[in-house]
Structures are given as structure tokens and as C-alpha cells.
């Protein structure tokens, strides 16, 4: 069985060695086999697992959510649980989009109202809008 050192795994997966160690500590990666000299040796499938972690993070999943998805995968768990996790994430993403859309509208409006010159003491619509924001 071919195995990889942590450096080789980092190179193949595009994930830094420090991050790999962190994911091990966080139980996202199974503990690697150790050599007699105590060096880590990873199976080739570790590349796929790390890439899954990276992609899930890019999609906005938290480490806990990623851990849950990986546990389901490892245990051949119920798809309904994976669907629940993804559904909750979708709800959060939609809420973030609403929030960002409101921010975009306020920024756009205040930028058009701001002359971009003169002293701040005369009132800056950008600063005033931020100060008035109560969300």
C-alpha cells in the first residue's frame, strides 16, 4: 500500500502541513500510521479527504458541520442527516445574502450621496449611515 509523507500529502492536496496537523487535531482527518521513527504516513485517500474539507470550507461549512458530514460518510450514515446539514447551511447562506444585499443598497445609496470632498464635520453620509445601522 502506497503512503505519503505529510509533505507529499500537502503538495498533492494543496493543503499546508500545519493545516493537515490541525485537521488531525480537530478529528477531521483520521490519525495517520506512524513509522518506527514516528513520521506520519498517510494513505492516498487522504488527498481526497483533504480536498473535501477544503471544498466544504469554501462552501461556508463550519468545521463542526464538516466533521458531521465526514462522520456520516465514514459510517455510511443516513443521507437524511446530510440533507438536514446542507439544508441548514442553505438557510444560513440565504440569510447572509439578504444581509449583504441590504448592506450593498445602503453603501450604494450613501456613496451616491457623498460629495467626496470637504471636512467630515459637515456630515458624511457614509459615516452617518454606519452609525445609524442597528442590525
Task: Write out key terms for the chains shown.
single chain; about 140 residues; mainly alpha; Multidrug-efflux Transporter Regulator, Chain: A, Domain 2
Characterization of the model:
The protein has 135 residues and is mainly alpha-helical. It is built from 6 helices and 3 strands; from the N terminus they run E-H-H-E-E-H-H-H-H. It has 2 domains: 1-62, Orthogonal Bundle (Multidrug-efflux Transporter Regulator, Chain: A, Domain 2), CATH 1.10.1660; 78-135. It has helices spanning 6-13, 17-25, 45-58, 63-74, 79-113, 125-132; strands spanning 3-4, 33-34, 40-43. The protein has a 3-stranded antiparallel β-sheet. The longest helix is centred in the C-terminal third of the chain and has 35 residues, at 79-113.
- What series of H and E elements makes up the topology? EHHEEHHHH
Q: Kindly state the percentage of residues in helix.
A: 55-70%
User: In whole angstroms, how far apart are the ends?
Assistant: 55 Å
How does the major sheet shape up?
3 strands, antiparallel
Please, how many domains? 2
What is the structure about, briefly put?
The chain is mostly helical and about 140 residues long.
Task: Lay out the secondary structure.
Layout: E1 3-4, H1 6-13, H2 17-25, E2 33-34, E3 40-43, H3 45-58, H4 63-74, H5 79-113, H6 125-132
Antiparallel strand pairs: 1-3, 2-3
